[in-house]
Amino acid sequence: MAARRSEQALVDEWRAILALHARTLCELDRALRGHGLGASDFEVLDILAEGAAEDGGAAYRVQELACRVHLSQSALSRLVARLERDGLVRRGMCGEDRRGVRVELTDGGRARHAEAKPLQRAVLSRMLIGPRG
Questions:
Q1: Whole-angstrom Cα distance, residue 133 to residue 126?
Q2: How far is CA 100 from the centre of its chain?
Q3: What pLDDT digit, counting tens, does each position of 121-131 carry?
Q4: How many structural domains compose the chain?
Q5: What is the CATH number of the domain that holds 88?
């Protein structure tokens, strides 16, 4: 009986995590819409901005981004193509591997990220810290 309760507690906790993730993603999408971004769009810009801050102009391979934003490579390729059409990122050939594609922020992408970042962080704070605090 105790094992069954323990198993149910584990399942309940997993479902609570999934529900929190879904609610947070919806809130992010709703909040970022005013900046012309979705949650995944912002996440790509945020990763690129962090990389640029660390080494002054980072470009990531699409495969590296896919691992960090938890999208399939094809979904990420479509997202990056849309961000490129919007002038927020630029794609180029990878110097080490001609088959690879690197992605970097444009000045417009840096500006859009800077505008949306406080809002995104506020939503994360409200959704992830607020309920527990």
A1: 10
A2: 21
A3: 999 999 999 65
A4: 1
A5: 1.10.10.10
